[in-house]
């Protein structure tokens, strides 16, 4: 492989690619988060108003039901039975994470669109569940993936999907794309 010495235009291109989002570009990712929040909250309101607690309707038998459930804990009902203090702990944690992501979205390179997309989805999901936690003291869940009576995945919601897909995109960026950005800095 030939040793490539970057010329001025290479450095200028790298500088352009690595320029931080700033607030103007971050607004696009904030808008994505707002869309996740709207979709999440409207779906929760729908199920809350049309279903009784633990009522279940088969959507795709035997793998998908709509089942209204309340989660007083975190993921997989972690700490759900702890008497109420966890509501404020998880609300505080979600608030700090959301503020950190909102700030970080202004600092990442404009070129890091996969990372920004992941962060926007996580932000929307975190705020969607935060709204529930503060409003009700629990998170409203309704998507029930299972296999007949043999296997059940914990019931979840749209905000959870945003968080999970967002984390996958952030990890993908970290593993496959961040090194390319770092190579731009080194060249």
TrEMBL record:
EC number(s) from the headed UniProt entry: 3.4.23.36
HAMAP family linked: LspA
Organism in which the protein naturally occurs: Moraxella macacae 0408225
Enzyme class: hydrolase
Annotated metabolic or biological route of this protein: Protein modification; lipoprotein biosynthesis (signal peptide cleavage)
Stored NCBIfam families: lspA, PRK14785.1
InterPro entries: Peptidase_A8
Transmembrane segments: 21-39, 88-105, 112-131, 151-172
GO molecular function list: aspartic-type endopeptidase activity
Pfam families: Peptidase_A8 (PF01252)
Protein task: This protein specifically catalyzes the removal of signal peptides from prolipoproteins.
Membrane protein topology class: Multi-pass membrane protein
UniProt keyword annotations, A-Z: Aspartyl protease, Cell membrane, Hydrolase, Lipoprotein, Membrane, Protease, Transmembrane, Transmembrane helix
Broad class of where this protein is predominantly found: membrane
High-level lineage: Bacteria, Pseudomonadati, Pseudomonadota, Gammaproteobacteria, Moraxellales
Catalyzed reactions per annotation: Release of signal peptides from bacterial membrane prolipoproteins. Hydrolyzes -Xaa-Yaa-Zaa-|-(S,diacylglyceryl)Cys-, in which Xaa is hydrophobic (preferably Leu), and Yaa (Ala or Ser) and Zaa (Gly or Ala) have small, neutral side chains
Protein name listed in UniProt: Lipoprotein signal peptidase
Gene that encodes the chain: lspA
Family: Belongs to the peptidase A8 family.
Active site per UniProt: 141, 160
BP GO annotations: proteolysis
One cellular component term from this protein's GO annotations in UniProt: plasma membrane
Location(s) in or outside the cell: Cell membrane
